[in-house]
Amino acid sequence: MGLNEVVDALERVERLLEDGQTGPAQDSLSWQRASDDADIQLGKACAMLGTCRQLRQGTNNYVSIVELSFNAIERSFQFYLVEMTSAESADYRKHEEVFADIAARNVFSDEEVASRIDAFRSEHRSRFYYDIDRPGRDFAMGMHDLAEEVHHYLVEFADAHSRCSCNECE
């Protein structure tokens, strides 16, 4: 594969977007209305968790599980903030803002969960992403478990069970 193939592939994806020909939407996201910001964040979190569940079965792609778990936690937080406040997803330009807003709203009582996850994310995420540290199986499974628990807690707190697509995947 050379430069011409790279340029051809780039032109193809550019053309697909320009023509609005992106193909059928992912099933788990197809119920969402494009104008419903909270549902979009919820659907993204559900999709990432679903991918983690698939990765857990028979692969050792722990980096992807860890990265998707961090993303699912952040999308779940964003869902909650958009759903329960007057915030919009566009209000959060930096990762830290999502965690700080969740912590300020005391969603996890006084357990400081959001602050602890943010501190953990700040310290470790880029180290895993850039392969400075390498996550092992136990850590990857633990991160996925954490993401699932955070997601389900927030879905319960927002009474959004009917809109969460996680049960469809299990």
UniProtKB/TrEMBL annotation:
Any Pfam family: DUF8154
Domain DUF8154: from-to ranges: 2-166
Record-given protein name: DUF8154 domain-containing protein
